[in-house]
Specification:
Blueprint lengths: L3 H11 L8 E2 L2 H7 L2 E6 L9 H14 L5 E4 L3 H12 L4 E5 L5 H9 L3 E4 L4 H14 L3 E2 L6 H17 L5 E5 L4 H11 L6 E7 L4 H8 L24 H8 L2 E5 L1 H15 L5 H11 L9 E6 L15
Parallel strand pairs: 2-10, 3-4, 3-6, 4-5, 7-8, 7-10, 8-9
Antiparallel strand pairs: 1-2
The protein binds pyridoxal-5'-phosphate (PLP).
């Protein structure tokens, strides 16, 4: 299992690449939520999401071990992050994307000199292809969450929160495959276990919620949510035991609540965040956290949206 030591090592590995992102606050948001809210702003991170943390940790290790080629399967934030860091380290990367990927995302990958290969429309088609490409060319496939280096890298968000907000009572973060939350859990629960950690998922993508309830990894059919970073169908083999061991609570939010949260942050705080990032704020706004008058850190996980389609994300 990943330990807080691994997270500390990851922090050293990635320090020259990532930003220590700011904490934003809004009196209006806090009074609306009945808690003091602090937004850990990973939408202002390099490549627009926290994914660069885990990707940098993993790719640096792979390169140190002699990798001369990198692959990943993603059209989203993970693909952008892997393309960025591979380019920075002068290692060629191929990102396997779905045939229906949006142009803006493909352009972002190309902007980082990533090679693009289209394959099917599901991750069940993409992942084997990306692994096969890696094998053919003596490269390394970089998974999106179920990997100790990825988990440790994402956990650096937790270290920064503890330093930036010494008095924090509660941390809320979105849950997709579980890399982000399990990294944060490892960093915080092995340092200051009194801090409460709450995960948030869309009602329509509640695979981790169901898995926790059943006490084992449980998969759900393909999900439909505007939170496209949280469309996982089941938690990871490596992430789920960490979630089971440490997570205090997991709450669900509706699509309409996600839209309201995104709208509030855009209109009042002038911050463009993506729907996957808005689930934690939605949980706080619609009183699902079960706490009052507490200092709550909410992880804003990313800000990559196709601006031309922004209207579809608003209430
Ligand atoms: C990937 C991603 C998530 C989910 O992270 P996991 O590690 O898969 O749980 C949440 N928000 C954004 C913006 C993401 O890109």
């Amino acid at each position: 299992m990943v330990t807080v030591n691994d997270v500390n090592q990851a922090r050293e590995q990635i320090a020259d690449i990532i930003h220590e992102t700011p904490i934003l606050t809004s009196k209006e948001l806090s009074s609306l939520c009945g808690n003091q809210l602090f937004l850990k702003s990973e939408h202002l991170q390099k490549t627009g999401s926290f994914k660069i943390r885990g990707a940098t940790n993993k790719v640096k290790h792979a390169v140190k071990d002699g990798a001369t080629f990198i692959t990943a399967a993603s059209s989203g934030n993970h693909g952008q992050a892997v393309a960025y860091i591979a380019n920075k380290l002068n290692v060629p990367a191929t990102i396997v994307v779905p045939e229906d990927a949006t142009i803006s995302k493909l352009n972002a990958i190309r902007g980082y000199n990533g090679e693009i290969e289209e394959c099917g429309t599901t991750s069940a088609e993409r992942i084997p292809r990306a692994k096969e490409l890696a094998e053919e060319k003596n490269g390394v496939f970089i998974p999106p969450y179920d990997d100790p280096y990825i988990i440790a890298g994402q956990g650096t968000v937790g270290l920064e929160i503890m330093e930036q907000l010494e008095e924090v009572d509660v941390v809320v973060a979105p849950v997709g495959g579980g890399g982000l939350i399990s990294g944060i859990l490892t960093a915080i629960k092995e340092t200051k276990p009194s801090i409460k950690i709450i995960g948030a998922e869309p009602e329509t993508a509640q695979d981790t919620y169901l898995s926790l309830k059943k006490g084992k990894i449980t998969s759900i059919p393909a999900t439909q949510t505007i939170a496209d970073g949280l469309r996982s169908s089941q938690p990871g083999d490596m992430t789920f035991p960490i979630v089971q061991k440490y997570l205090d609570d997991l709450v669900l939010v509706s699509e309409a609540e996600i839209q309201q949260a995104l709208f509030f942050v855009l209109e009042r705080m002038k911050q463009l965040i993506e729907p996957s990032s808005a689930v934690g704020i939605a949980a706080a706004m619609f009183d699902k956290l079960g706490v009052r008058e507490k200092r709550v850190a909410c992880v804003i996980s990313g800000g990559n949206v196709d601006v031309r389609k922004l209207e579809q994300l608003l209430p």
